[in-house]
Every structure is written in structure tokens, then in C-alpha cells.
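User: What would this chain look like folded?
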Amino acid sequence: MPKSTNYIAKKTDENGLIDYTEEDNAVWRDLYHQQQPSVLKYAAKPYLDGLVKLNLPADRVPQCREVSETLLPLTAWSVEPVPALIGFERFFKMLSERKFPAASFIRSRKDFDYIEEPDIFHEIYGHTPLLADERFAEFAEFIGLTGVRCSMNEYSWLMRIWWFTVEFGLIKQQAEIKALGSGLASSPTELVYSIEDTSVIRKPFDIIDILRTPYRIDINQPIYFVLDSVDQLLEFVQRDLMKDIKTAQALGLHSPVYENKKQVG
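Assistant: Here's the prediction, encoded as C-alpha cells.
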């Protein structure tokens, strides 16, 4: 997670609504229409199915409350606006309660194609379609439940699982590889890159390998992990991730492969 932000959180009114400006809505509209063609081409079916179920508005920033009204009957998840950045402890606690924290601001035109910290477009357009799938809903809750048991020196290890699955996971879909992660779905450049770029390393999904793989948030990822199916995530819900983290810590991190990667944006 980024350590600082240039954005200020927007506050909800007494009805739980946020007053987004015309420019905010225009940015959402333009991001949505820019991203849709690539998403329809490269995103995996579970994400696309969730996008249909949620029926997000194309011309304005959706309110967290209205997204929650759709999600709750589907998977018992809700979306709650939070400040631009929150700590690991609060993040994992919210996940454990099936509450997804959504940064309430939307990026400026200056950051249109790349923003380091998550904004409302990433949170809603990127994440909530996956939360409409009960398998992902269960996996995300499991990460939260594990996170509330972690100590401070274990948070970053657990976040690698989140990063390489929910944010930047790939998946086999028939004879193709498709993008599954929310960070890919909401990224104008990395979605295409993750599938098409010949320099990308695509590895089989393995928890210990993932836990030992360092990443950076300011580059296109040099390594992605590929699920065989969404149901594979449910197999890991049965694991003792705390034990896995200790195993990975004893083995140590892999050497990073991103020294020569260029920064995004």
C-alpha cells in the first residue's frame, strides 16, 4: 500500500451520500468508457458476470450505499467509504466483517491513466464485481480473518496473497489466460500488458511462492500467478495461512526481478 496520498477523502452527508462534482462524474464516465472495451476482451468471466450483476452506472460515480444494496443480497458484502488510505489493521478487520473499504475520492485528470493510491474507480469498478461472486467473497473474508490474527511483521506477507490474487491475479479460461484481479480490471495499461506482453512471467498459483515474491506498486508487474480455476481459491480457504507465512519467512523472499522495470505512468 502507498504510504501517503495527494488526495483528500470526501465526506458523506447525513444520508450516507457523497456529493460528487460534475468533473468527478465526468472522470468516472471517461474512465468507464475507456476501460470497457479492454475489459470485455481480456477480463475473466467471473469478473464480467459480476459487472453485469452490479449494473454500475456508466455516467456518474456510484454511491457506496447503492452498490451495497445490490451486493448484500448476493454475497452479504457491503461497501463503506473510508479515508484515502487506511492501515492494515483496519483493512483486514473490515474484510473479516465482509465490509469492503472504498476510498471516497476519484482521481484527477492529471492521474487519469495511472494513480498509485486506490480511488473510487479502482474500488468500485475494479473490486466489487468480484465480490458479487460468492467464491471471491469467501476468499476475501478469509484473508480478513487471517489478517486480524497477524502481527505487524506479518501484514506485508499476507498482503502478497491479496496482491497476486484479488489485485493482480490471472486465470486459465478454456485455452486462454484472462485477467482476474481488480487492479488489472481498473488499469488502462496493465490489463492489456498482463495478457499480451511477451516479457511477462506467468507462474502457476502456489501459496508459498506467492508469499516469497516481492512486488512494487509503481510498475507493471513482471510476475503474475495464474489460477487454474476460481474454485482453486476455496482450496486455500482450508489452509493455515499463519503456518504458511512462517514457512515463507523462514525461507526468505525471492530476489526481485523488477530492477529494470520502468515506472507506470
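The beta strands are 78-82, 99-103, 170-173, 176-179, 201-204, 223-227. If you want, I can go into more detail on any region.
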